[in-house]
Amino acid sequence: MASDVTKMRGTVAIVGVAESDELGRLPHKSSLQLHMEATHNALADAGLKKSDIDAVFTSGRNTANDVPEYLGIRPRFIGGTQVGGCSFILHVEHAMAAINAGLCEVALITHGESGYSRIAMPAPRWGDDSTNNQFELPYGTSGPATGYGMLATRHMHEFGTTSEQLAEVAVATRKWAAMNPQAFMRDPISIDDVLSSRLIAWPFHLLDCCLVTDAGGAVIVTSAERARDLRKQPVYVLGTGECATHQMVSQMPSFNRWDAAVVSGARAFRMAGVRHADIDVAQFYDAFTIVPMLALEALGFCKPGESGPFVAGQRTAPGGDFPMNTNGGGLSYTHTGMYGVFTIIEAARQLRNECGPRQVTDAAVAICHGTGGVWSAAATLIVSTDR
Amino acid sequence: MADAYTGPIPKPTPETKPFWDAAKQHKLLIQHCGDCTQHYFYPRPLCPHCLSRNVTWVEASGRGRLHTFVINHRPPRNFPLPAPFIIGIVELDEGARILTNIVGIEPEPSKVHCDMPVEVVFKDITPEITLPHFQPLTR
Questions:
Q1: Which of residues 304-363 of A touch B (CB under 8 A)?
Q2: Residue A238, number of CB atoms within 10 A of its CB
Q3: What is the DSSP string of A276-334?
């Protein structure tokens, strides 16, 4: 029997969002401190106290053990699902399920990462006998760029996608960043600037790649009922989806589309009951310029292979008809290593009309979507101020 | 060996040891499922397609096509190949895919193409470990 995913639509809301006190290069702060600042600020945003939190969700180098300890919280529901940077987006789905099951009422989803300064970052997990270290690392894979590029190359081969089209995303995203005082890189760039920046892993140039920064971000989710009495306008969760397909990039099912995102997006839209035309603003994890392009295809905003023409002509920039990554994204605002939580923060702020010069007019429905690992996992979240 | 190898050296596990032992003999072993008849890589004692345990080691033809690739300009520290170098995913004629280095061709986007035919060559990196690399098909 197929389960009815629409039952949970609108049952919970995002009621508090915040970053750490500062973002960027912060050698004077540990990753755990960044968690704490973001949590403190998100509670203030929601008008809630620490004692209200009864569930903690986190991911990354810090775990659901050390984060609650540092914060002095004893969660009754613990979420530590770790599938890479989108983990925090799928934590919203898990929090929704737990709240609906009556296991908790106020869920904290927290991220903190000293991604650049590496302060108090526990060691990486892979040993020499891991599958990664046996079958990929010996070939000189270095960080995510080599893995993400595999899909970019095949996409260019099959669909004629160009480096110029990839660069459109970087240029458009920088224009949004110029309007966000918290963004790390705010000076305008041109398509030529992207193409003439040094090669990292062809087909990616430096400006096709996200930043590496230090930051924290936190989101508080509670029942729609409790959300009504809180400080800010509730941002209701209409639809969620998640999927994971592989860990090593060589095991990816296909290299011309993003299979995990096809699955996560389909469920999110089915649950939300909204059409693509209803989406006013999109926050798509942009680890590399190709990533939000493949999200556009996988989620059905354009046909397979057509994301290059879709993003051409600065369509995703301020003034374009598809506002995307309005905070400046991982490419220009902040990217700690696990960007997912920041998509939720910006979506909530857009829907609450808090974005000042970068505010998308009359934004009522937003979509967040993220990647984890090397296209390994995907999570989708559709939110709205209307239930 | 004159100099110690400076790159990452795989450490075999019980289920991958037959692959590494064969690579040392310059043979490329993959696995074949007796139930769903598909080949697969990396080594596992159960078929990832149908979860059958009815799997056997077979020697691959060593030929395939370069499914996709990147040209890495920022190698890991002490990586022995000079940058830029090619990391490719080869789809073997048997259907399994393997991540590898593509050697014997200039690391230039205009020279390397998706779907180009390639064949295995073996690179002894330590007395115990040999890495399968691939080069453009010569035969």
A1: none
A2: 26
A3: GGG--EEEE--SBTHHHHHHHHHTTSS-TT-HHHHHGGGTTSTTSSS-B-TT-IIIII-
The answer to whether residue A148 is catalytic is: no
Pairing state between β A12-19 and A235-244: antiparallel
B50 reaches A (C-beta below 8 A): no
Terminal Cα-to-Cα distance of chain A (whole angstroms): 27
Reduce the DSSP state of residue B130 to 3 states and report it.
Answer: strand
Q: How far is CA B58 from CA A275, B31, B38, B39, in A?
A: 50, 6, 12, 9
Q: Do B68 and A135 touch (CB under 8 A)?
A: no
pLDDT in tens, A124-170: 767 889 999 999 999 999 889 999 999 999 999 999 999 999 999 99
Contact indicator for A220, A44 with CB cutoff of 8 Å = no
Report ipTM for this prediction: 0.96
CATH number, domain A5-121+209-384: 3.40.47.10
Say how far apart CA A324 and CA B52 lie, in whole Å.
Answer: 45
CB nearest to A150's CB, from B12, B70, B100 = B70
Nearest chain B CA: its distance from A146 CA (Å)? 6
Q: Does B123 touch chain A (CB under 8 A)?
A: no
Q: Is A333 a catalytic residue?
A: yes
Please report, for residues A160, B38, B62, B90, B108, the alpha-carbon distance to residue B136 in angstroms, rounded to integers and kept in the order given: 23, 25, 12, 11, 14
Substitution target in B20, B68, B86 with the highest count of A β-carbons within 10 Å is B68
CA of B138, closest CA in chain A: separation in Å? Answer: 22
Q: How far apart are CA B26 and CA A63, in angstroms?
A: 43
Q: Read off the amino acid at residue B139.
A: R
Mapped onto helix, strand or coil, the DSSP state of residue A131 is helix
- Per-residue pLDDT tens over the stretch A308-357: 999 999 999 999 999 999 999 999 999 999 999 999 999 999 999 999 99
Distance CA A135, CA B40 (A): 13
